Structure formats: C-alpha cells, structure tokens
Amino acid sequence: QIGLLSLHERLSQRLQHYFRSAASTALSAVTPSWPPIGPAPVHIALIGFGKFGWKMLATIRSALFFARSRPLHFHIFVDHRCAEDLTEALSQGLEAHLRMRAAALQFYGSETFKRAWPMLESR
User: Fold this and answer.
1) Which residues are 22's β-sheet partners?
2) Shortest CA distance to 72 belongs to which of 92, 51, 87, 94?
3) Would you state the torsion angle of the CA atoms of residues 40, 42, 47, 48, taken in this order, to the nearest 10 degrees?
4) Which pLDDT does position 85 carry in this prediction?
C-alpha cells in the first residue's frame, strides 16, 4: 500500500506541474492542446468575393455532411460583401446538426492580404 500511495503522490505532483505550466502559457485558439482532446481538426480554406455566400454555404454544408471522424476548421477569406452574404447564408441555411461538426469558422477580411487582394479581385 505504501508503494501505491507514493505512486499516486508522484502522479499527482506531475499533473499539478503540468496544469501550472499549461495555465501560465497562453495558447491561441488554433494551437492544439496537448495531450490532444479528440481528433485533430481538418483545416479547409475558402476564398470568396461579392455575392457568393450562398455558393460557399453549399461547399461548407457538403464538407460538414461528409465529416464523420474529425471536426472541420474553416478559414474563410472574403471581402466585406461576401462576408455579409455568407453570414446571412450561415444563419439561415446551415442546419444545427451540421454546425456542431465545425470546430471553427474563422473569417479573414481583405486587410489580411492588402497586396494580393487587388490582384485577386481584378481576375
């Protein structure tokens, strides 16, 4: 019984050290936790301009429908018009059971790519 108690104490000390060090480190939302909790998400990038929110919704819905074992993290690069259109489409057209499969929907605006955005819009 003494051996089991000392093993428990050592494990408890290691866990306390792990949680203290984890609490002192600021982790961003996209940095996976360690040890991982569940499967790592699949990252999917989408780019949209203008009034393509509903078309982007079709892609998002399709990906979420077929996602069975891993959550999906969407990186969505859009201009202001498309962001409004996609937000409306997501609120009206994405079913709750599909929304639960998304790990995150992260929007990036045109300010993210100041140099490249004009080239993309001109095409």
Assistant:
1) none
2) 94
3) -90
4) 92
Residues in the chain: 123
**Phi, psi at 31, each rounded to 5°:** -80, 120
Distance CA 94, CA 98 (A): 7
- The identity of residue 42, as a single letter, is V
**pLDDT at position 56, please?**
92
Residue type, 110: S
- What CA–CA distance (Å, rounded) separates 102 from 41? 9
Given a cut of 60, is residue 40 above it in pLDDT? yes
SS (H, E, C) 13-24: HHHHHHHHHHHH
Write down the mean pLDDT value for the chain.
76
Tokens of residue 104, six digits = 């995150």
99 has pLDDT over 60: yes
Specify whether the CB–CB gap between 74 and 60 falls below 8 A.
yes
Q: What is the pTM of this model?
A: 0.62
Specify burial of residue 85 (Cβ count, 10 A radius: 0-12, 13-18, 19+): buried
**For residue 94, what are its two tokens?**
């994405």
